[in-house]
């Protein structure tokens, strides 16, 4: 029996159209737009001025606090302007626009592909390096990665869990990374283990990526402390709490962090970025992005510099199909619908999904028939139909008692509801209201 | 310039729908319908047709002319209520009584609460109990099955197995049924007196298995009901086999199978969590046996389900699903 999490879960069609499509470098556009807020936490402080020349790998905006991240130039050229630009989230964000000239790198960066296995830095130096390189959770959460490497006093890390699940339908960027950069990922795992001062790592991979499982197993043959853990395909297994439950069978209590059960979770792409930062002195200036869709001519995986407009990626990869009616940044379950195709690829962009007109619109909602299917699929054991009802009526006390804050916004409930009820839309509103009330109570 | 659709996630849907679920239940009723038609001939077709038409037209009229809302008759739920009502009626019932039952089922049992999903009681059972109370004589004269003998209009009427047992229990000689293997066989295959849909336990079980396979229903409610009935009647049977009939008889007789698989599992009127479903099922099992054995009616499934329907909102308040982990104790 393959491992998986025990409560709820769904199995949407996988549609991994771009699986096993080799990584290619995306050609540079004429202009890139780099927002200073690509992470959870304070926006970075801009260090460059209009007209300034920058090189690839140069620091252009500086972390503005503990929970914040450095931003580096991903191209060489001239700072054209500093402006408010609508990004993938639909909000205007302060951004640095650079017009591309050539491709000149800082010479401190090791651009070779040679695998470097010897870890020279000390644990503290590794953490500093990760912070300096501006690395954030690349699975989509974009939480600064160095914060997770610093175990709070009184807690003890026991195991590093690497998230290679990629449970979102369509997306294949992590899969391809594990296939093509497996060695680097494993060195990255060792780096993180060293930083945490622990010895045990588990890499969770869903069973639909058998080649990646085999590949990593081969590489880790001589590393008995790194275990590859195949998991039964089930959404939302990539959720932190679900992954911990699936791999080490522990439940992170409501409102607590994974460290409570001794676990530190990092995404494989983040681990790869840590490898590059520590071993190659390369800050986070690019990432792997899947571009895909049912009527898209060339579903594929690309190495993209941060700041490249999504429209450029679509064009280079095959062009926008006629019948596209919705464009999503991320996967179909948790991704965001884009208002504007010129929004830049940021640190958190794992994929771009083009949805056909057939599937772009929601059906009209009907009455709740109380079939309880939403309750059955909720991975947190909540009652989505009830949370929606309570939100509609503004019963905030009841909402809090019904644990609305535990919702991980996975969307399994809305996906399943036979009456097409927009359960998660309402639950988000309920969460926001209850969150505000809870914060004001603390003050 | 913005030609794209914007909406919050998730951006895909399972493709499940109310219609799909309703039509799957209807599909699961086909075997029972065919067996019924085999035994009761045209009566099955006629009673079902009248009940279905009554339900669908009532829903249409109420929605379009009274509530002035778009009609939902295409979702299959009124159709299903009609079929289930018909399955709970004797085959020789007068057409106007059937029609009354159908109108009552939809108008009072469903629409007065606000339509599908808002009703507290199973509409088909509301219709049936209304008829049982209003027309007790007509509702309890069961035509004998007339297998392969469709043209024989005058087959006469007979008692149901449960009625026979009720009578015999008063006389203290119930054990005559326990030894009659033939009767059990007839009950499983359907060759017994009773309402249209109660006849063949086997056909109903086939339908139930299909529904569980297709994830339209889960096993919790049927297993809880049948388990409770078996345990409860076993205790009684071993206590005094001359007064109480054996559990096997109870499980396969009367409307238990129909009620268990198709009526108690009705979405709107059953609990929302597994724990709740088990309690609800146990409740139905206990009440059914109590009515059958100690009550004045020979059959109690309908009442048991309606009573537990009424308890369902309360069960929903107290029976929460198992949450993912408990919250940290705040220090
Ligand atoms: S979105 Fe929230 S309520 Fe809905 S299934 Fe996921 S965790 Fe449960
Ligand atoms: S899945 Fe939809 S129809 Fe079913 S109980 Fe939940 S909200 Fe109601």
From TrEMBL, chain A:
GO molecular function term, any single one: 4 iron, 4 sulfur cluster binding
PANTHER family in UniProt: ION-TRANSLOCATING OXIDOREDUCTASE COMPLEX SUBUNIT C
Enzyme class: translocase
SUPFAM superfamilies in the record: alpha-helical ferredoxin, Nqo1 FMN-binding domain-like
Protein name, UniProt field: Ion-translocating oxidoreductase complex subunit C
EC number annotated for this UniProt entry: 7.-.-.-
Cofactor: how and how many bound: Binds 2 [4Fe-4S] clusters per subunit.
Keyword ATP-binding: no
Parts forming coiled coils: none
GO-annotated biological processes: electron transport chain
Binding, [4Fe-4S] cluster 2: 378, 407, 410, 413
Keyword flag Endoplasmic reticulum: no
4Fe-4S ferredoxin-type domain residues: 359-381, 397-427
NCBIfam families: PRK05035.1, rnfC
Signal peptide: none
Chief location bin: membrane
Record family assignment: Belongs to the 4Fe4S bacterial-type ferredoxin family. RnfC subfamily.
Superkingdom of origin organism: Bacteria
Subunit structure: The complex is composed of six subunits: RnfA, RnfB, RnfC, RnfD, RnfE and RnfG.
GO CC term, one of those recorded: plasma membrane
Membrane topology qualifier: Peripheral membrane protein
Function, as annotated: Part of a membrane-bound complex that couples electron transfer with translocation of ions across the membrane.
Cofactor: [4Fe-4S] cluster
Sequence positions that bind [4Fe-4S] cluster 1: 368, 371, 374, 417
From TrEMBL, chain B:
Membrane topology summary: Multi-pass membrane protein
A Pfam cross-reference name: NQR2_RnfD_RnfE
Localization terms from the record: Cell membrane
Entry EC no(s): 7.-.-.-
Principal location class: membrane
A GO cellular component annotation in the UniProt record: plasma membrane
Cofactor or coenzyme needed: FMN
InterPro entries (UniProt xref): NqrB/RnfD, RnfD_bac
Modified residues (FMN phosphoryl threonine): 160
Alphabetically ordered keywords of this record: Cell membrane, Electron transport, Flavoprotein, FMN, Membrane, Phosphoprotein, Translocase, Transmembrane, Transmembrane helix, Transport
UniProt GO BP: electron transport chain; transmembrane transport
Enzyme superclass (EC): translocase
Residue intervals passing through the bilayer: 21-39, 45-62, 93-113, 120-139, 192-212, 219-239, 245-265, 277-295, 301-319
Highest taxon, organism lineage: Bacteria
Family: Belongs to the NqrB/RnfD family.
Subunit structure: The complex is composed of six subunits: RnfA, RnfB, RnfC, RnfD, RnfE and RnfG.
HAMAP family: RsxD_RnfD
Purpose of the protein: Part of a membrane-bound complex that couples electron transfer with translocation of ions across the membrane.
Record protein name field: Ion-translocating oxidoreductase complex subunit D
Taxonomic classification: Bacteria, Pseudomonadati, Bacteroidota, Bacteroidia, Bacteroidales
Gene giving rise to this polypeptide: rnfD
